[in-house]
Design brief:
CATH class: Alpha Beta
CATH topology: Double Stranded RNA Binding Domain
Shape: elongated
Strand order of the largest sheet: 2-1-3-4-5
Order of helices and strands: HEHEEEEH
Strand content: 25-35%
CATH superfamily: Lipoprotein like domain
Number of domains: 1
Number of helices: 3
Structural class: alpha/beta
């Protein structure tokens, strides 16, 4: 009899434990379950200075971020989540001026205007500028470090866009 009570007791707590489960997301996303697709339009570069690789790197980087961090399917247009926009800023400015008024560090900054439409919940829509930058030594030519800087900047931009749209940060 005692053994039977133990089994009932264990079964009761197992049922409670399984019924009270919590779903955690390691990516931090809070995407509604009815959202199944996303689309990313090409981000043209409309800044005064133009890097020929930046538009493609940003567009593809945003697609890859969502493909790797969510279960959403990429569609060509009219996804449940839609991203469009343009690159509005690409500039280099001196930072960390030393004695003799010489820059020890330069900063490459990129500004992107992003229009996000959530076709399931338009309360989540936004039209926002995102900016990211990376510093480099003034002893280096921009052309020598530009590809590496663009990679870092695109990574930061896509993370910020992802967080704002999918993680509601």
């Amino acid at each position: 009899m005692k053994r039977a009570l133990n089994y009932i007791f264990i079964g009761f707590f197992a049922a409670i434990f399984l019924a009270c489960s919590v779903n955690y997301s390691f990516t931090g996303t809070s995407i509604a379950p009815e959202i199944k697709t996303f689309s990313v339009e090409y981000f043209p570069n409309k800044s005064q200075l133009v890097n020929p690789n930046l538009s493609n790197a940003l567009t593809e980087g945003l697609k890859e971020k969502f493909l790797s961090q969510t279960k959403l399917e990429l569609v060509d247009e009219r996804g449940d989540l839609e991203f469009s926009g343009l690159i509005t800023g690409y500039r280099v400015k001196p930072m960390a001026i030393t004695a003799g008024e010489v820059a020890a560090t330069n900063r490459l900054s990129v500004v992107v205007k992003v229009k996000f439409v959530n076709n399931v919940d338009h309360e989540q829509d936004f039209n926002k500028d995102f900016e990211a930058y990376s510093d480099y030594s003034s002893n280096s030519l921009l052309s020598d470090v530009e590809d590496e800087l663009i990679e870092l900047i695109v990574e930061d931009l896509t993370e910020d866009i992802f967080n704002k749209s999918a993680a509601n940060w």
